[in-house]
Amino acid sequence: MTATTHHTYRHAPHPLHAILLAGTVPLFFGALLSDIAYFRTYQIQWSNFSSWLIVGGLVFCGFALLFALANLIRAHYQKGRAMVYFLVLLAAWILGFINSLEHAKDAWATMPVGLILSAIVSVLVLVAAWIGLSDLGDGGDI
């Protein structure tokens, strides 16, 4: 009589990957908050501040995306979670890039599309961080 045991191993993300991924959340969320401030006050500096936060978020997200791609390539089991994580992070980066182009417009021309894109990107990055940094018990390699 043999008993089979199922072992689930969770690989913690590389510390640099975790820092980059976690850094995207406040940068993109800060851009959302500054877009809201610009929408309410019409002070152009809020739009400028948002543009710089988006650029910072894109840099952090881009490097985290490279880590996510490496994890997707080396995932032996449970490729589904690694794929979802990669796709959500990729969607956040692409929409963040479009948002940066939107914020390059002149002053009020960024509204309301820039605000909407900032909200969507903030949610996507939050979901990606949740997937990438939490242990959902499936043994993924993220």
Automatic annotation (TrEMBL):
The keyword Membrane applies. InterPro entries: DUF2231_TM, UCP029509. It comes from the Bacteria. It holds the Pfam family DUF2231. Keywords: Membrane, Transmembrane, Transmembrane helix. The chain crosses the membrane at residues 16-39, 51-70, 82-101, 113-133. Residues 14-133 form the DUF2231 domain. This is Uncharacterized membrane protein.
